[in-house]
Structure formats: structure tokens, C-alpha cells
Amino acid sequence: MEAVAEPGNLAGVRNIILVLSGKGGVGKSTISTELALALRHQGKKVGILDVDLCGPSIPHMLRAQGKAVHQCDQGWVPVFVDQEKTISLMSVGFLLENPDEAVVWRGPKKHALIKQFVSDVAWGELDYLVVDTPPGTSDEHMATVEALRPYRPLGALVITTPQAVSVGDVRRELTFCRKTGLQIIGVIENMSGFACPHCAECTNVFSRGGGEELAQLTGVPFLGSVPLDPQLTRSLEEGRDFIQEFPKSTAYSALTSIAQKVLHRMPALLS
Ligand SMILES: Nc1ncnc2c1ncn2[C@@H]1O[C@H](COP(=O)(O)OP(=O)(O)OP(=O)(O)O)[C@@H](O)[C@H]1O
Ligand code: SF4
């Protein structure tokens, strides 16, 4: 049986979720953020590790930009995004002098930071740690998976948009998971239709169902479709809690249903 290591700063973290996508801009950071908020609303304590070194957008989405990361005996203390301290966040965005400056580091420096993020953040007790990764399957993904592999349960959520070109990228992402021994929690289709802010109508701007079809073809669970919702875009822009503010929206139903499926699927990854 595979060894289960639970040392150091991840000792109090009960589940780790890696969020992956084949290409950029499909909503990986959006899903990471909203999943964390949805899990929090279901009473869970959640941490977010933003490993997207070149485009750390989560501090903005959670209105935490400009906050400072402090040091303690165990390493970095993550930033708490709410007063109740139910969501904590660590991002390279907190370490840059100018948050608009691009990270142009070479591979070894990126690897070192990822390793440090995995080992040196004092998360304390967490039900879920959501890890937002850069798009694709780069060296950074290898470094992240290698650093996190000893910790279980560890699973991957794969985000796609409905179009065939994005679905093709996801196929490569699933191959990456299989090759690196990463268990797949499921596939999520984002930007799946346009949810009208005035009525419940959902219009399929692009084709629909590519994510579900791919999940079926590859034997991976399909966790749900999240529509494009202008209220969600605005909430992310303004760093507001969409899950709290729009409980009647189609995107809310989709996101909370996905969070419940994740809660249900995680223990199964141990068996
Ligand atoms: N379901 C949705 N409804 C409305 N807006 C969305 C939705 N999903 C994503 N967006 C918007 O699309 C943009 C891209 O999303 P996001 O930054 O999450 O993508 P990403 O895959 O993380 O990108 P990157 O490749 O830069 O890491 C953001 O402005 C976000 O607000
Ligand atoms: S989506 Fe259709 S029904 Fe909804 S407000 Fe727009 S036009 Fe009206």
C-alpha cells in the first residue's frame, strides 16, 4: 500500500483538491474561488493555495489584494479573507512588491517557490485545501504534483469550456493526471451557456455538453455545468461573495451542487 505522509504544515489539512485546465481563461481561478466559498457555506474550513505564479488572480477575486503575509515559527501565515477566519489564502501575489509585475522566473526558482508553498505555509486545521494551478501541464504542475503526492486524499478537478478545442486540451490534462498517478475527482464544464440576469433563461452561446461527453468517453465523473453569469463576473471583479449574494441564480445552484459532489467524492479517493 502507498505510504501516507502527513507531516509538517499539511498535518491538519484533511483533503487537497488540485484545480487544472488544459488552457488559459476557462475559469480555473473562478471555480477555485467559488468552490472555496461554496464549501465554506457548507460549514467547511477552506484554504486556497494560488500556484498560478504568472497570473495570480485569486487575491483580487477575494478582495484580499495588498494584504500582508506574516512569518511565524512554522513559516508563512496565510491571509484570512473573512473575519470569521474560515477561508485562508496564500498567493505569490502577496509576495510581489508590485502586484501588477509579471513573474519572469526560470524553472528552478519557480520549483523552489512551489515546494516552499507546499511545505512552509502554516495552514493549521483545514477541511479542504484548494490549489489553483497555471493552465496546461508545465513543469510547475509536475513540481506541484510531486510536492503534494505524499498527502492524501489528493484529487484533481479538471475545468473545461464546452467547445471542442478546449475539450481536446482537457483530454491531455486527463492523460497528465493518469501518468502522474493523480486521482481525478471529476470534470466541470464552465461558461456553459449564458444565464440571463433578468430571467432564468440559459442561452447556449457556444456548443454545449462537450465536457459531459468527454467525461463519459474517458470514464471520468462529470460534476456539472456552470453558466456564464454576468453577476458572477461582477462579483469576482468586486471581490464579493457570489454564493452568499445570488442564491437564486442558476450559477449558484450549479456551484453548490458541484461542491456537494466534491464532498461526496473525496472520501472515495482513499479507497
Ligand atoms: N461562469 C462564469 N460566469 C461569468 N464570468 C466568468 C465565469 N467563469 C469565468 N468568468 C470570468 O472569465 C474570466 C477568466 O476566468 P479565470 O480568471 O477564472 O480563468 P482562468 O482559467 O483561471 O485563467 P488563467 O488562464 O489566467 O489562469 C474572469 O474575468 C472571470 O471573471
Ligand atoms: S434572456 Fe430572453 S427572456 Fe431573459 S431577459 Fe433576455 S430576452 Fe428576456
UniProtKB/TrEMBL annotation:
Residues annotated as binding ATP: 22-29
UniProt record, GO biological process: iron-sulfur cluster assembly
Signal peptide boundaries: none
Principal location class: cytoplasm
GO molecular function: 4 iron, 4 sulfur cluster binding; ATP binding; ATP-dependent FeS chaperone activity; metal ion binding
InterPro entries: Mrp-like_CS, Mrp/NBP35_ATP-bd, NUBP2/Cfd1_eukaryotes, P-loop_NTPase, YlxH/NBP35
Domain of life: Eukaryota
Alphabetized UniProt keyword annotations: 4Fe-4S, ATP-binding, Cytoplasm, Cytoskeleton, Iron, Iron-sulfur, Metal-binding, Nucleotide-binding, Nucleus
Record flagged with keyword NAD: no
Annotated binding of [4Fe-4S] cluster, by residue: 196, 199
Cofactor annotation remark: Binds 4 [4Fe-4S] clusters per heterotetramer. Contains two stable clusters in the N-termini of NUBP1 and two labile, bridging clusters between subunits of the NUBP1-NUBP2 heterotetramer.
Compartment annotation: Cytoplasm, Cytoskeleton, Cilium axoneme; Cytoplasm, Cytoskeleton, Microtubule organizing center, Centrosome, Centriole; Nucleus; Cytoplasm, Cytoskeleton, Microtubule organizing center, Centrosome
Cellular component per GO, a single term: centriole
Cofactor(s) the record lists: [4Fe-4S] cluster
Subunit-structure text: Heterotetramer of 2 NUBP1 and 2 NUBP2 chains. Interacts with KIFC1. Interacts with NUBP1.
Family: Belongs to the Mrp/NBP35 ATP-binding proteins family. NUBP2/CFD1 subfamily.
Function: Component of the cytosolic iron-sulfur (Fe/S) protein assembly (CIA) machinery. Required for maturation of extramitochondrial Fe-S proteins. The NUBP1-NUBP2 heterotetramer forms a Fe-S scaffold complex, mediating the de novo assembly of an Fe-S cluster and its transfer to target apoproteins. Negatively regulates cilium formation and structure.
Protein name: Cytosolic Fe-S cluster assembly factor NUBP2
Native source organism of the sequence: Phodopus roborovskii
